[in-house]
Amino acid sequence: MSVDPLTETADTVCRHDSPGSLFIVSGPSGAGKGTLVRALLDRVPGIWLSVSATTRPPRPGEIDGVHYVFLSGEEFDRLVAEDGLLEWAEVHGNRYGTLRMPVEERLERGEIVVLEIDPQGAAQVKEKMPESVLVFIEPPSFDELRDRLVKRGSETPEQIERRLRTAREELAIAGTYDYVVINDDVEQATDELAAIVTTCARQRHSGQKD
Predict the structure, then answer these.
(1) Residue 67: inside a domain, yes or no?
(2) What is the pLDDT of residues 39-68, one digit of tens each?
(3) Residue 180 is part of which domain span?
(4) DSSP run (H or E) holding 138
(5) Mean pLDDT score across all residues of the chain
(6) For the chain, which terminal residue's Cβ has fewer other Cβ atoms within 10 angstroms, N or C?
(7) Domain count across the chain
């Protein structure tokens, strides 16, 4: 879905009754979701970014509670059993999930909440929270996606190929999202993402007043 004219689109996508605004930023590994979300946080004040929980080991430089909440398999199982996760998925042999309580608390306060999660998890949240706004981050080309994964240097060739196979499936569902942002130029893509968030949040607030 085009972000232009954004205001007209937001009339149908963004008007809901919940106090806060929930945005799900998703897309294939290597599309640049994290880069755009970090730029968005610098651009738009007052956004709360959910920190996902995961069973995978920390990568060099990652901090527990900042980059992810790192959990053991047993701790993750307990959260699943207690319905403490808004969504969870197994991706490339590790489990990832969104902690339910902090997200719901922020939304009840009327805050803007952003989840940066994989498409499998995004579908679960959208089913449970239809008022959420789905934004798909798409690479300019599949070759560019491959180059980004290789340059990242954090995975073996076999792991990269596995991510690319998953990416093909994920790219095929981009059209089911509320918005698609092509991350060719980071500055331009950030502008588009910020426009989506600010316009939808404004429409949400306006809808509550009406």
Answers:
(1) no
(2) 999 999 999 999 999 999 999 999 999 989
(3) 6-50+110-209
(4) strand 133-138
(5) 89
(6) C
(7) 1
